[in-house]
Amino acid sequence: MTGRFVPPDSQERICLRAPNWVGDVVMATPTFRAVRQRRPDAHVTVVVHERVEAVLRGTPWFDAVLTYRPSSRSLLGEFRRCARALKAGRQDLGLILPNSFSSALMFRMGGVARRVGYGRDLRSALLTDAVPRPSEGGRFKPTYMVDYYLGLCEAAGIEPAGRDMELPFSEADAAHADEILRSQGVDPGRDLFLLHPGAGFGPSKRWPSERFSRLAEHLADCYGAQVAVVAGPSERRTVARIVDGARAEVTDLMDRGVDLHLLKCVVARSKLLVTTDSGPRHYGVALGVPTVCVMGPTHPGYSTSEEPHDRVVRLDVDCGPCQKKRCPRDHRCMADITAEMVLEACAAALSDAAGGGTS
Q1: Could you say which of 31, 43, 242, 290 would form a disulfide bridge with 7 (CB–CB 3.0 to 4.6 Å)?
Q2: Is the same domain home to 91 and 186?
């Protein structure tokens, strides 16, 4: 994923601004693949925020990676550094996947000749190709983000190369992840079920920790599986509550060296993933692992694939989907989902994976 920012003058130069959230980066992988496969001779640069750079580690689609590191210096100084790097690369075409004003401004300041992005958040004047956001009946239409990003490819004249998400990793990465799991007592001869309680978007996406604890007990009792919890640093207290509250052995994989890259290997090794509507959910879908998502405030149309192993447990409530980071009411969309409801979805997902059909 390293390379020159200034390719030969005869070579087409394409740059992409990756999304800023883990799940969105995974859902953008069909777009990255399309650019690489449809423009095999182009020099392709991706601009990626430091917090999600590891998601793209080991992928084959880029000649150069420009990591945006606002934590390393002043925000303005880092922004200008990236814009200067783009300008030095004399970019011919840019696909701007985030909807933010700042992402379009960076590509404009970076002298990208053709700038393709969705015309929203008052940024149309910064784009050469302001693509209309999908709408229906005069309102924005919730669109699966894989298709949303591929729409920019089509607007740029780049034909999609399939809709399947990808998360490549090497055999060495897999071996490293297996070493970490063994060091935590995970038996490679037994099925591993993963729980992910994270909610980087905001607390409205959280499912009560005691429900995760009850679910862990059910999964251990019903399937004899090993249950482990994975989460980011901000979820330390939540993970502790889940582990301490379960009347079953639950392995805590926090702070064990499982970063966003090695998480691909851990998820691929597992037989089931239960998660909130957060980034690792899309790891499971991309890697073909039976995945059950406990969803509350978000609209399923943005993130739910057509894959049979991508299952959602959600309730239709009068106040949702609200798309709010914090619930202003009683959080009924998540609080009313029981461990037994999720266990039923897990059973269906596992039956599908075993060839038992849908339920």
Answers
A1: 43
A2: no
Task: Examine the domain organization and report whether 343 and 286 are in the same domain.
Answer: yes
111 shares a domain with 146: yes
Residue ranges making up the domain that contains 119 = 13-155
Are residues 37 and 144 part of one domain? Answer: yes
Radius of gyration of the chain (CA): 21
Give the tens place of pLDDT for each residue, 206-248.
999 999 999 999 999 999 999 999 998 889 999 999 999 999 9
* Cα dist from 271 to 109, 169, 227, 308, 324, whole Å: 46, 18, 10, 15, 32
Rounded Cα–Cα distance for residues 308 and 354 (Å): 12
* Residues making up the chain, counted from first to last: 359
pLDDT digits (tens, 9 = 90+) for 126-137: 999 999 999 888
Q: Is 7 inside a domain boundary?
A: no
Q: Which two tokens stand for residue 197?
A: 């309680």
Q: Are the C-beta atoms of residues 93 and 112 closer than 8 Å to each other?
A: yes
Write out pLDDT tens, residues 183-204: 999 998 899 999 999 887 888 9
Total number of domains constituting the chain:
2
Give me the pLDDT at residue 267, please: 98
Consecutive H or E run containing 63: none
Q: What mean pLDDT do residues 113-138 have? A: 93
* Integer Cα distance of 293 and 280 in angstroms: 10
Whether 129 is covered by a domain: the verdict is yes
Cα dihedral sign for 152, 156, 162, 168? negative
Q: Is residue 329 part of a domain?
A: yes
Q: Is beta strand 139-140 parallel, antiparallel or unpaired with respect to 135-136?
A: antiparallel
Q: State phi, psi for 23 to the nearest 5 degrees.
A: -60, -40
Where among 121, 155, 189 does a domain terminate?
155
Q: Which residue has the higher pLDDT, 18 or 138?
A: 18
pLDDT at 93 (0 to 100): 98
pLDDT of residue 355: 79
Q: What is the pLDDT of residue 234?
A: 87
- Are 128 and 32 in the same domain? yes
